[in-house]
Amino acid sequence: MPELPEMETYRQQLTRLIIGVPITGIVVTRPKSLNVDPEVFAKKLIGNRVVRMERRAKHLLFHLATGEILLLHLMLGGWMFFGTQEEQPDRTFQVDIQFGVNRLCFIGLRLGYLHVHTPEAAYTLLQKLGPEPLELSFIQFQNVLRPKRGILKVTLVDQTFLSGIGNCYSDEICFEAGLLPLRKISTLTGNEQLQLYQAMQALLREAIAVGGYMEEPLFVGDRLTGQYNPKCRVYDRKDEPCLRCGRSIIQIEVSSRKCFYCTYCQK
After folding, report:
1. Which CATH superfamily is domain 4-126 in?
2. Which of 4, 87, 155, 212 has the fewest CB atoms within 10 Å distance of its CB?
3. Hey, what CATH topology would domain 133-261 get?
């Protein structure tokens, strides 16, 4: 599932590609991806323009010239591609939005959604999310952490705790911090809380800078999207040697999620 760095990469790249370009066509092959009938959706979008893009947690918000907002959550298996009909990858897409004469944003929404809302409704839906991790000072992070009693892995992926961190980056952050993902939050010392905070800040910024871990490019010639994938320290590296100590990376399941770590380097 795309997480904070992937969605931030999409936001940055799409901002350069679609802002101010008129929407000229809509194709919907999975109506339940929308919150209105496809005909209503098309009527609201065709002739409209995206004037600003925003990211909140794992969501993208497309601010339209008419004042409404397209709220996108790709969820598991979701991804996007921007290009011509001829460049379209051999993949299934649920919504295609045409910009200008021949450029389309192909949106794969196997489990995700693309809803149109008033600004008030969109922000009300997002109120349940926790704070953005990159906007927190260490003191604020400690305050958010203090009431938590669960284990580190489960807490980090809880979107009401912090927003935007998912399965991949929770494991990567724990490794960077030198902490086992199975540690109880209540057992973390002040120094370990600082290690966790600094690891979270550094790793998320690094992942954004190199385009996250999504393997598929956003457009033909895209050299940014997905460049974090080969840089993963532990995620999806079961039985491979740890980059620090050389011992094998362990994979277990935690609350129905894959979890990767090094038993020697993480305490």
Report:
1. MutM-like, N-terminal (3.20.190.10)
2. 87
3. Helicase, Ruva Protein; domain 3 (1.10.8)
DSSP classification of residue 17: H
Q: How much is the pLDDT for 260?
A: 98
For the chain, what is the mean pLDDT? 97
Residues 6+ positions from 115 with CB-CB distance below 8 Å: 34, 35, 36, 70, 71
Nearest to 163 by CA among 126, 217, 123: 126
Of the candidates 162, 231, 233, 174, the one whose C-alpha atom is nearest the C-alpha of residue 199 is: 174
Q: Model-level pTM?
A: 0.95
- The answer to whether residue 85 scores a pLDDT higher than 90 is yes
Q: Where are the domains of the chain?
A: 4-126, 133-261
pLDDT, residue 215, reads 84
Spatial contact of 225 and 79, defined as CB atoms under 8 Å apart: no
Q: Which long-range contacts (CB under 8 A, 24 or more apart) does 15-20 make?
A: 15/53, 17/82, 17/99, 17/103, 17/219, 18/50, 18/53, 18/82, 18/99, 18/105, 19/49, 19/50, 19/51, 19/52, 19/53, 20/49, 20/50, 20/51
Amino acid at 195: Q
257, β-bridge pairs? 254
Which residues are CB-neighbours of 106 under 8 A, at least 6 positions away? 80, 81, 82, 83, 88, 89, 91, 93, 96
Residue 259 neighbours by CB distance under 10 Å: 23
Handedness of CA 9, 198, 145, 255 (dihedral sign): positive
pLDDT of residue 233: 97
- pLDDT at residue 80 above 90? yes
- Enter the tokens of residue 130: 């926790």
- Kindly report, residue by residue over 190-249, the tens digit of the pLDDT: 999 999 999 999 999 999 999 999 989 999 999 999 999 999 999 999 999 999 999 999
